[in-house]
Here is the input.
Amino acid sequence: QVQLVESGGGLVQAGASLRLSCAASGRTFSSYSMGWFRQAPGKERRFVAAIRWSDGNTYYADSVKGRFTISRDNAKNTVYLQMNSLKPEDTAVYYCAATDGSTWLAVPGNYNYWGQGTQVTVSS
Here is the structure.
């Protein structure tokens, strides 16, 4: 069982930066691939970024590539999402998720555990 708690969301202006954190419980955090997803009002949940447990490879949605960076600190059981050059279209609730798999990391249905989400609002 893994419990995930996100933090770091907030209201910022376009062009600003935020760093989201996701703290995980459990002693096997390093064995989980971690992902970030976001959901805007009235839209489905969409993939943002993921980091694979086995080799640390990272994956990004095209819309955030070059602006967002996912990283993890296994000693702290925490995964981060550094978000730079934020745009109004990045406004959404951001969710952290964990899976014991290592493939199809952009698919929400492949994740076993989810956090409660943190709101990110970017004003123009």
Q: What stands out?
A: The chain has a mean pLDDT of 95. The longest strand covers residues 92-99. Residues 15 and 85 are 4 Å apart (CA to CA). The chain has no helices and eleven strands.
